[in-house]
Design a protein that fits this description.
It is built from 22 helices and six strands. It is mostly helical. The chain folds into three domains: 7-127, MgtE N-terminal domain-like (MgtE N-terminal fold); 142-244, CBS-domain, CATH 3.10.580.10; 278-447, SLC41 divalent cation transporters, integral membrane domain (Tetracycline Repressor, domain 2).
């Protein structure tokens, strides 16, 4: 819900053209808070407010607007002014935003963006989606290894105003090959040694990302080494950009949202839930529901095959939900554990045998506990202790099958280059439903 506390005052300031008050409003609070208080304003009203501050603050406040509002401003306001605004935005942010804007509007805006920024946009747009190149920023602190500490400090002073971060300062040779880095702290600490070359101070053993690396892998690398930023290089080891910690947070949130959708058997949404049309939601949900329906039909076919046996021992029908839910639930648990482990980098494909053995052990122990409970229930309900053995034996076998299936299928998906989250809990449960019915009836035929 928009914060309406200042809306009447803001609109009154605009109506009275109170420039001093509007200028004060734009700088009095953190940019995020300023944007929050402007949520209820229209696109044109918001832009009118932003005219009373400098370009740097204007870009910062604009960056905290909801994406829908940003898109509305770019698509409806003066093209020349919006082209200049795009040029002022951080390189990675403007590329992400333009991907959501009407393509015809983008064609009209790009020629109005300053030439250097326009070339940068086109270069970043060329990288495949979800790669390091697509999320990196090209604004970074870069120094030649031949500079002295004094020269480096002077150069950083010139660069600092237009950079997103200068904590890490990357050292390159004359052909822009990445050679090393120095932190701002190291550089300041060396101020008493003005003639020392940067090449003598820099760290050479760097953690880097390639432009083609998957963004999720890069995010894990940044988290593992606790980096504020990671340099991005091309195949020739040229420094082409950096990915900062705030970009990593965005990647983690995006990947977490995608995984959450897939866990629920929903094709990931491209925009927010309320911004997605009903027809698109129906398609993204329905396509998977149809697949799950066909999986359920196989369960029905399996039951039909054993119709005669079920008529002979009618009490078997009572325990079908118990059997298939035990296997499906255990399989879903295993799938969740393995998918999470893969996502967090706690396990790899090479660990498949250890995972299988652990899940086998857990399946036997968990299955044993559930089987004991199921046996008591079955013996009481049917009044035949010998016949009741069908239920616990089946539960044990189905739980073991569930844990192994739920743990190994995500690994198989990862092996073939697919997202393991696609093997979500509903799909594991659907597979175990079919297998569980077959195991149940085969056990019943063997014992009875």
């Amino acid at each position: 819900m928009p914060n309406t506390l200042y809306l009447p005052e803001l609109r009154e300031m605009l109506a009275n053209d109170d420039r001093a008050e509007l200028a004060e409003f734009c700088v009095a609070l953190h940019s995020a808070r300023t944007a929050e208080f402007m949520e209820g304003l229209t696109a044109s009203e918001s832009w009118a407010v932003l005219q009373h501050t400098d370009a740097t603050n204007r870009e910062e406040i604009f960056g905290y607007f909801e994406q829908d509002k940003q898109i509305d401003m770019l698509e409806t306001l003066d093209r020349t002014e919006m082209g200049q605004l795009i040029g002022d935005l951080p390189p990675d942010d403007r590329v992400d935003l333009l991907q959501e804007v009407d393509p015809q509007v983008v064609k009209e805006l790009l020629p109005l963006v300053p030439a250097e920024e326009r070339r940068d946009i086109l270069r970043l747009q060329a990288y495949p989606e979800d790669t390091a190149g697509a999320v990196m920023t090209t604004e970074l602190a870069r120094l030649s290894e031949s500079l002295t500490v004094r020269e480096a400090l002077e150069e950083i002073g010139r660069q600092a105003r237009e950079l997103e971060t200068i904590y890490y300062i990357y050292i390159v040779d004359d052909e822009n090959h990445l050679r090393g880095l120095v932190s701002a702290r190291q550089l300041v600490a060396a101020m008493g040694h003005d003639e020392t070359l940067i090449g003598e101070l820099m760290e050479r053993d760097l953690v880097t990302a390639n432009v083609g690396d998957d963004q999720e892998d890069v995010a894990r690398t940044v988290a593992r080494y606790d980096l504020l930023a990671i340099p991005v290089i091309d195949q020739e080891h040229h420094l082409v950009g950096i990915i900062t910690h705030d970009d990593v947070i965005d990647v983690v949130r995006e990947e977490a949202a995608e995984d959450a959708h897939r866990f629920g058997a929903i094709d990931p949404l491209d925009v927010g839930y309320l911004q997605t049309s009903i027809l698109t939601l129906i398609w993204k949900r329905g396509m998977w529901l149809v697949l799950l329906l066909f999986a359920a039909l196989f369960t029905a076919f399996a039951l039909d095959r054993y119709e005669g046996d079920l008529n002979k021992w009618k009490w078997l029908v009572l325990f079908i939900p118990l059997v298939i839910s035990s296997g499906g639930n255990s399989g879903s648990q295993s799938a969740t554990l393995v998918i999470t482990g893969l996502t967090m980098g706690h396990i790899t494909l090479d660990d498949w045998l250890r995972i299988a053995l652990r899940e086998l052990a857990q399946g036997l122990l968990l299955g044993g506990v559930l089987a004991a409970i199921a046996y008591v229930a079955a013996a009481v309900l049917i009044g035949d202790a010998a016949s009741a053995l069908v239920v616990p034996v089946t539960v044990l076998l189905v739980v073991v099958c569930g844990t192994l299936t739920g743990s190994l299928l995500p690994l198989l998906f990862r092996r073939f280059g697919l997202d393991p989250a696609m093997m979500s809990t509903p799909f594991v449960a659907a597979i175990i439903d079919i297998v569980g019915v077959v195991i149940y009836m085969q056990v019943a035929l063997a014992i009875l």
